[in-house]
Automatic annotation (TrEMBL):
Keywords: Exonuclease, Hydrolase, Ligase, Nuclease. This is Ligase-associated DNA damage response exonuclease. The keyword Hydrolase applies. PANTHER family: BLL1145 PROTEIN, CLEAVAGE AND POLYADENYLATION SPECIFICITY FACTOR FAMILY MEMBER. InterPro entries: MBL, RibonucZ/Hydroxyglut_hydro, Xnuc_lig_assoc. Its EC number is 3.1.-.-. It comes from the Bacteria. Gene3D superfamilies: 3.40.50.10890, Ribonuclease Z/Hydroxyacylglutathione hydrolase-like. The keyword Nuclease applies.
Amino acid sequence: MASIGTPRYLNGALSASYPFQDRPPLITVTPQGLYCAPGDFHIDPWHPVERALITHAHGDHARGGSRRYLGARTGEGLLHRRLGADSAIDTLPYGERLRINDVTVSFHPAGHVLGSAQIRIEHQGEVWVVSGDYKRAPDPTCEPFEVVRCNTFITEATFGLPIYRWDDTRLVAEDILRWWDANRAVGRSAVLFCYALGKAQRILAELARLTDRPAYVHGALNSLVAVYREAGVKMLPTQLVSEVEKGTSFAGALVLAPPSAGGSTWMRRFGEHETGFASGWMRVRGNRRRRGFDRGFVLSDHADWPDLLRTVADTRAERVLVTHGYTDPLAHYLRDKGVDAAPLATPFEGEAED
């Protein structure tokens, strides 16, 4: 198959120190996506394929149309929500190994969203790990990241610049609550924009540690919140905005909505309000001003710069391929530190609106 965005590793120019340099690469890039030839499957393919292994349920990683899917068991509900109830989805518990043709695969927690997984692939003693999206920060809505030793590590780099460093999530949640309280005191609603899958549920769970007041949610969030509740995640009580009786005041309320709702007619019902946005992109102050939000809260479901570096070191990988995000800066930094690293071009989006 023709390859696209191929780094030097996948052209056969492997580091002399790599223990399996005499073998073809275990994963290649094809027009359909990342492909494992010995296993005859794709990982997070961007076009329909016969068999797709899926790291998590965000739309740039879980795309419809493939004949069969395999994912982590705790993400099954979200995968069906994304891919359709009739999709052929098999699942594995974290850590359980499965033989697929000539390779052994297993799923390991990525700490990104509910059911997110790194995929470990072993073939004749060689181990590759595809990280998907991941974070190392604690999150009450999903299983914590698990370090998986490997020979080749394919890592994301959504926030692969030194400027991106996250504060303690508990402090961010306290800041959101103070903002809500301040608006509540003067009779304004607080409309907080956040990504529909993962971020919204994490905010609701973090706030549930601090208050039991209910929040309102946009329809794009509601069914996903329900999946998390079915998985046993404790969150604030929520009510769907569209089910509120017409003419009801939202003064003092917290409303969670996807960024796409901003500036739409849907916003008119809230009267006087302030807007906020919860995202890792809010680390750059100019982003908040350019997008017209009253407040920005730095909260991401991706690893920050220190945790990207820590994860690469923890895996003890002999080589690292860097995909989606700031791939070139991270790969360059790793090479300067003596790590055999290169960028790997893919269509994955990282922290884009979902």
